[in-house]
Amino acid sequence: xxxxxQIPRQEWTRYFDELTKRFFKDGNPEAATVEVISPDLxxxxxADFVRALGVAYDPRSEALExxxxxxxxLVYHPREVWVVEEDNGFVSTLEIVRDDDTxxxxxFRSVGIVPRPDAAG
Length: 121
What we know:
By secondary structure, the protein is mainly β. Helix content is about 10%, strand content about 55%. The protein has 1 helix and 8 strands; from the N terminus they run βαβββββββ. Strands 1-6-7-8-2-3-4-5 form an 8-stranded antiparallel sheet.
């Protein structure tokens, strides 16, 4: 069963570093869809089914970065970060709320096959 929770600001750097190391650096490709929901502009897809390489937060520039193959999606000065965590800790949905109430929803999907630990090769 999945769990939705808000990640406290002081944990953003560590949380996303650990998430990236655990799920995006394992050789099992992930794909992301990025949807921007703006009170002024409506709902727009910024990226669809693009290979995801990780997520990072830089407290100095106050930028949350969704690293995608060929493009990095940056959100400056996020106000809130929410995640939907699956039982194994994988984040299937990341929601970033900006100061202007724009929401950026990133949906991650696993698209690869993890080799069995006992597989020869």
